[in-house]
Amino acid sequence: MSGRNAYYVEMAARAGLIGIHTVAAPPLVAPPGGARPALGTNPIAFGFPLEGDPLVIDLGTSAFMGTDLQFRQRLGIPLPEGVAIDEHGRPTTDAQAARRGALLPFGGHKGYALALAMHALGVSAEYLFIAFKPDLFVPLEDYRRALAAEIAAIKATPRQDGVDEIRIPGERAYRERARLAREGLEIDRRIHDALIQLAERRRGA
Question: Which pLDDT tens digit goes with each residue over 11-29?
């Protein structure tokens, strides 16, 4: 895996480029109707330059991400309904059973089709990065202004009852990043202890 895909496309977008990154991951996801994994979580990320923080969209094509599955397995936390099957192809919320079975694609056949598209790209390059200048088509500043206007129009959409804000992908992550920079980062004790042990082993190597 390439780590947090959004990191790379955000760098490209902050440099004034449109960035696209995808990965053909090891099998962890069953196709619709399948009882065994045949596709990876096959994430895809996009970064688009704006005047301030770029627009970053990062999603996996599975209904639940593999890293989150490992985390829940380690802590014994159940999975949401409808995201995984066990080794016999039966729905499960047990992370341990899901590790022996498979995750499911998000959105049924649509997520499956997108996962397969990323897999097909991965046949040519397991880690695929594409970056290009918006000013191949329009001047960069015009692009930034037009995209900002589109985002403003989306955020101004009339809201349903009880909805305080229409959010754009990445907004919550930027806010959370700023909060954690002020307040510090909390991690699980077992993860903390594992990091300390890893550091001690590296010092002793």
Answer: 999 999 999 999 888 899 9
Distance from the Cα of residue 39 to its chain's centroid: 16
Dihedral-angle region of residue 44 (phi above 0 means left; psi in -120 to 50 means alpha; beta otherwise): beta
Positions of the chain with pLDDT lower than 70, given as ranges: 1-3, 205
Strand, helix or coil for residue 22? strand
Give the Cα separation of 61 and 43 in Å (integer): 6
To which residue do tokens 């754009």 refer? 168
pLDDT of residue 67: 87
Q: How many angstroms separate the CA atoms of 79 and 100, rounded? A: 14
**Residue 26 carries which side chain, given as an amino acid letter?**
P
Strand order in the sheet with 44-48: 55-59, 44-48, 18-23, 127-132
Kindly report the backbone phi and psi dihedral angles of residue 146, in degrees, each rounded to the nearest multiple of 5, phi listed first: -65, -40
Instruction: Give the three-class secondary structure for 85.
Output: strand
In the DSSP assignment, the letter for residue 48 is: E
The dihedral over CA atoms of 23, 24, 28, 34, expressed in degrees to the nearest 10, equals: 130
